[in-house]
Amino acid sequence: MNPSLADLATPTKGKGDFVLVNLSRLMDLDAKSPDRIAVALRLSAYWHTCKQRTADGRRVFLPERVDFIPVDDLLVEINAPGRAADVIAGEDSSRMGRRKLSEARARLVDETLPALVNIGYVGEVDAPATGNRRGAWLVKALPPKDYLEATAKTARTRRAGSGNSRRK
User: Does pTM surpass 0.85?
Assistant: First the structure.
């Protein structure tokens, strides 16, 4: 990772926090499927929440905090097509609506996530197999190794204290 980018990603008081995104890998995605970019950005934001600040101010990534995400939540967060979103919200209970939701779920699990794995944006993905999709649709997407390396590099740059400590 570029040292100047690491400096930009250093959290400081009063400054917005940054999410690590691999733009060169995003550029490798098929432009015909904009939902893939939305899923990639959402997963980057999710991985960012799996960090914890240590006592000395560094932010470290904790792989054990990565948990299963409901596919329906991902669909809502990436602005799923209208009918699928209506079924998730409980506004549409028609047969056609349920079918559209099922198709959207399958497209996310069978096409979008594997495409992100193929370009190296996502590490391992644990998703329901084709024959085992009853009940809750949950996916677990781990970040790639270079994300962990970049996180370790930005973690070394810690937030400076305010200097107004009352402890002596």
Answer: no
